[in-house]
Design a protein that fits this description.
This protein has about 260 residues and is an alpha+beta fold. The chain folds into three domains: about 40 residues, no CATH class; about 100 residues, Immunoglobulin-like, CATH 2.60.40; about 80 residues, Transcription Regulator spoIIAA (2-Layer Sandwich). About 25% of the residues lie in helices and about 25% in strands. Strands 3, 6, 7, 8 and 9 form a five-stranded antiparallel sheet that branches. It is globular. About 20% of the residues are buried. The mean pLDDT is about 90.
Length: about 260
């Protein structure tokens, strides 16, 4: 929404008149941030869908990986497939005149389940990084280090294609998948689906708000320290198990 539209819609309320200067300042800041985020694309919505372009994807029978890295001097994929060594056959190329790095790989170079990170060089240094748009990130139980994971299972079959949000007031139940169990351990998506969700419905709630779904390094943060915005937390299970929680049970118990 343009800054002028934001101001006019808010300032129609006479009770907000004493705060007009603050509203204008915040509207300008919002408009400037939107312009910054949408730089190089036509609409802010395109930026919001950047995960469909960046990261690791299937492409023409093989793979394509892209990363936005304006200050990088060189980027390589390193992982199980390269013995965790820098291999120039996995080196990304910078697209001309852009801050985008890209590599295309044939199908046999990567396999489902393999772990990887980015080896990134910049002026004055280098180091390993988790891809910003990774869709699956897993913590090693021994080293406690995180790595992205090639995730390419059979496509999940959604079971609630015809679901429509009922026209009713939401009665919201907030829950944390890992902490919602009776057992002294981290719960899973599957356990929540089978053991907890039916109790929430029986208590009369019709809306579920799940905490800590996006990947986060510190479990004690309750999920507020997000590190991978496009990866559901692997602590609780696989993406397909989260999808089963969202579709099968909610579809059945909240028709």
């Amino acid at each position: 929404m343009p800054e002028s539209a934001i101001r006019s819609s808010l300032l129609e309320d006479p009770y907000l008149a004493p705060y007009a200067a603050i509203i204008r300042r915040r509207a300008r800041a919002a408009a400037e941030k939107a312009a910054q985020l949408s730089n190089g694309v036509e609409r802010l919505s395109e930026f919001a869908c950047a995960h469909e372009y960046y990261g690791l994807h299937r492409h023409d029978g093989g793979w394509v990986f892209r990363e936005w890295a304006p200050n990088a001097a060189g980027i390589w994929l390193v992982g199980d497939f390269s013995g965790w060594r820098v291999d120039d056959s996995f080196r990304l190329s910078r697209l001309p005149g852009r801050n985008v790095w890209e590599i295309f790989l044939p199908d046999e170079r990567l396999r489902h389940g393999q772990f990887y990170r980015l080896e990134m060089a910049w002026n004055g240094g280098r180091g390993e990084r988790i891809p910003a748009y990774a869709r699956r990130v897993v913590q090693d139980p021994e080293t406690l280090l995180f790595a992205a994971q090639v995730w390419d299972p059979e496509p999940y079959v959604w079971k609630a294609d015809n679901f429509k949000v009922p026209q009713r007031a939401p009665l919201v139940y907030e829950a944390h998948v890992g902490m919602a169990q009776d057992k002294p351990a981290v719960g899973s998506y599957a356990e929540f689906r089978e053991k907890v969700l039916p109790r929430i419905v029986a208590a009369g709630y019709n809306t579920l708000q799940l905490m800590a779904v996006m990947e986060h390094p510190y479990y004690g943060s309750f999920g507020y320290h997000v590190s991978s915005f496009f990866a559901c937390s692997s602590r609780f299970g696989t993406p397909e198990e989260l999808k089963a929680l969202v579709t099968r049970r909610i579809w059945q118990v909240w028709p």
